[in-house]
Amino acid sequence: MKIKQKYINILYLSAMAHYALFGFQNCSNQFSNMQFKPNSDPQSGFGGGTQGTYIEKVDAFSVKSSIPKIDVLVVMDNSGSMNYEMLKMSQRFNAFLQQLNTTDWRVGIITTDVVNNTFNSRGRLIPFDTNAKKYFISSNDSITTANDLFSKTIQMSTGGSGLEQGINASYLAIKNNFDPLSVNYQFIRPDAALSILYVSDADERSDGLNLALENTSENLIQYIKQKFPTKTFNAHSIVVKENDLTCLQSTLTAVDSSNKVISAVNESFGLEYAKLSQLTGGLVGDVCQDDYTVQLSFMGQKTIDQIKEFKLSCNPQDTNNDGQIDIFITNKNTGTNINQFTVSNNVVSFNEMLPIGDYEIRSSCLNEVIANNL
User: Fold this and answer.
1) Which of 291, 307, 323 is the endpoint of a domain?
2) Whole-structure pTM value
């Protein structure tokens, strides 16, 4: 199928404007969302154009289940200033869960504390029910039960380290996923999409300065790719947004279920968390929102959307100057073409979940060696 570039641009700009209305940012996806293997021996001249200018790329992926799997890791700042944000998450996380109701999902919680050595620090999953040793909620629970467990668990003690390190904690949580003695063991499934949600009123290491390797967005992305080469991953963040001085300097107040007034003062802009969201195509939310419903709902929807997206190995081109991108998608099992999709840069977004099967995407891309010498 050939897609009109003008139509694609309109769709993309419209989507960006829509998300902007709700006060958070939507960033381009950086990961494939299905298992694939780029062709290492592309052929030249596919689709026309100056001979040798373009090369054919063939990407292949498989859809292995009609019910997609999604693992969600919530990273909660548990330092002394976070009572307000914990309350807001407990009240509105149901909006996130509702978006996952047609998937095989699971949700776990860790904290930003990697300094102390307690049951809820250093990337360890926090128990939802200590008696049952339940370390995550899942689609096996009813939405009502899952939301009730989440609401109670997320309102934890705020005695965690003031040197918040959510990205480092994520790294440790994934590392613990491979340790048979850890409560995290096999929480993250190899065939599931992964979404990480950060909630903090501070940056990584509180101020985002003097970051060690394990505190950087790039290191976490590389580590996930190393451990799960074909995994879809995005990160969302609810933080003090860059240059939002009103939020940064605000004293946030709310009333909990026992009519107790709680208040909090924010610490710093969440720049490194926002950067991670931008690099992985996630959303950046606003920690100062009075009601988290809209942003959590859109983050849940974005988590679902990632399982319908696929990252090509290059940006497909219009090789014969007819105003249309040259890209063809085929179900290899049935021989039928897939027509319901859009393309933005090197990301293909399918309108619906594809049936179980093996798929091939053929596209024309610039031959960088030739193009650079023209």
Assistant:
1) 307
2) 0.80
